[in-house]
Design brief:
Number of strands: 13
Largest sheet: 7 strands, parallel
Strand content: 5-15%
CATH topology of the largest domain: Rossmann fold
CATH class of the largest domain: Alpha Beta
Strand order of the largest sheet: 3-2-1-4-5-6-7
CATH superfamily of the largest domain: Glycogen Phosphorylase B
Distance between the termini: 39 Å
Oligomer: single chain
Shape: elongated
Length: about 450
């Protein structure tokens, strides 16, 4: 048994638009954290960062309901029938206690004008399927056989720690593994997994050895859900950005050329790409827009650009490797991410890494004042903030920036300094590695103050 080994569990891994997780695994390994990779399912696309293709070869993709899964469950049932049967009742009991978790918060914080109308019928049905508390229970119970199989594999291989990425189903599986096999677990909470599907979250936070999250606003929310029934540790660790990969590059001369906006993110409504296109339609023919990313809204956004009469000024690049993405950043005068909060579901960005990437390249950024974005972008200091879902306000700020070279340079310089101080991936990942290595060795978990520099 190697006490330093940690199993990382993902819903799907690697995924192109979640490169921050890929870099985290690679960096932790370089710092001596021995990580075994497990994934509940395979990625939906074969398109990957080059490093992701290499890593995918060693991922253990969990079988759904195979002979080996049934065999593992039968073995555990025979060995300890009371514990095996009890885990089904315990999960249901925890869900019943926490079934209304987050509902009061959602009513207070979701804007009534959020763009549900931008969703396709498929996206609406998918959202309802994911948010239904009773379906969530059934899906969680259906994960128990897989969790038991995972536990038997970890037990066989001598892996005695489990860390789940995403607080939804991966953390549920990790909690079940902990119940059945007494394997300590922890998890990382991101965005949709705590705001869109908060069921069982109170139990997970209280039972995990520690929780890592990427924003102070997330930590506050999780601590509020968990309550004060017992001590719990929610540690803020910003994902950070590679300052070597994303660094200032020469930009085209600004005289007598089209102004250029760049944005990057999955093509989904909560990213606010539709708001950016509406703002671009107000800016005139001398402004072009580069949209990097892929997703279910691609066709709808292309149609919107055509309806607005700006299709010839909007380029949809599809997904790009980070080296190519950096080149696109270098073409631009400003980076924009017009994120919104989706009504009812609460799906949103928290601190999108693409903002930190653009800032690291000394590119001025414009974002919306939601979630944890204010932890990165301070209006008028490290960037500009506008209200969500307001293309008029966004267009006004962009017009101001395009006419004020000095303001753009001031914001870009301040943003680059701030990212170097607070979002340097190398520093942040060292703190994360110390957390994992300290836990494995029996040391104390670092306090939130040490994991989130202020």
């Amino acid at each position: 048994m190697d006490p330093s080994r940690i199993a990382f569990l993902f819903p799907a891994f690697p995924v192109l638009h979640q490169t921050f997780v890929l870099w985290e695994v690679l960096a932790l390994r370089r710092l001596g954290v021995a990580i075994d990779l497990y994934s509940i399912k395979q990625p939906s696309t074969s398109t990957q960062q080059p490093e992701g293709r290499e890593l995918a070869r060693e991922v253990h993709y969990l079988p759904l309901l195979s002979a080996e899964v049934l065999r593992a469950n039968w073995q555990v049932l025979r060995r300890d029938p009371r514990r095996y049967v009890g885990v089904w009742a315990r999960l249901t009991r925890e869900w019943w206690r926490d079934r209304n978790a987050g509902s009061g918060w959602r009513k207070k914080t979701i804007a009534s004008d959020a763009p549900e109308r931008e969703l396709t019928l498929r996206e609406v049905l998918h959202g309802r399927f994911n948010r239904n508390r009773y379906l969530y229970l059934l899906k969680s119970l259906a994960l128990i056989p897989q969790a038991v199989y995972l536990g038997t594999v970890l037990e066989r291989d001598g892996v005695r720690r489990l860390h789940a990425h995403w607080a939804s189903y991966p953390a549920t599986m990790a909690m079940v593994v902990g119940w059945v096999f007494d394997i300590p677990f922890s998890f990382t909470a991101h965005a949709y997994d705590i705001y869109m599907v908060p069921y069982l979250l109170r139990s997970k936070v209280n039972e995990a050895e520690f929780v890592v999250t990427c924003a102070k606003v997330n930590a506050s929310y999780l601590e509020g859900l968990a309550g004060e029934s017992q001590p719990h540790r929610v540690i803020v660790n910003y994902h950070g950005v590679s300052l070597d990969r994303f660094k200032p590059l020469p930009r085209p001369e600004s005289a007598n050329r089209q102004r250029c906006i760049v944005t990057c993110g999955r093509l989904e409504p909560y990213k606010g790409h539709h708001v950016l296109l509406q703002a671009c339609a107000r800016l005139g023919a001398d402004v072009r827009c580069i949209v990097v990313g892929e997703g279910p809204q691609r066709q709808r956004l292309e149609q919107l650009a055509a309806q607005l009469g700006i299709a010839d000024r909007v380029e949809f690049t599809g997904p790009l490797p980070q080296a190519e993405l950096a080149k696109r950043y270098a073409e631009a005068d400003v980076f924009v991410l017009a994120s919104v909060v989706l009504e009812r579901s609460g799906k949103r960005d928290v601190i999108p890494n693409v903002l930190a990437e653009a800032m690291a390249m000394r590119l001025p950024v414009v974002a919306t004042a939601i979630s944890g974005i204010g932890e990165l972008v301070a209006d008028g200091s490290t960037g500009r903030l506008v209200a969500p879902n307001d293309p008029v306000a966004l267009a006004a700020v962009l017009t101001e920036l395009f006419s004020d070279d000095a303001q753009r340079e001031r914001l870009a310089a301040a943003g680059q300094r701030f990212v170097a101080e607070q979002f340097d991936r190398e520093i942040n990942i060292q703190e994360l590695a110390a957390l994992f290595l300290g836990e494995v060795g029996g040391g104390a978990v670092p306090s939130p103050a040490s994991a989130a520099r202020t």
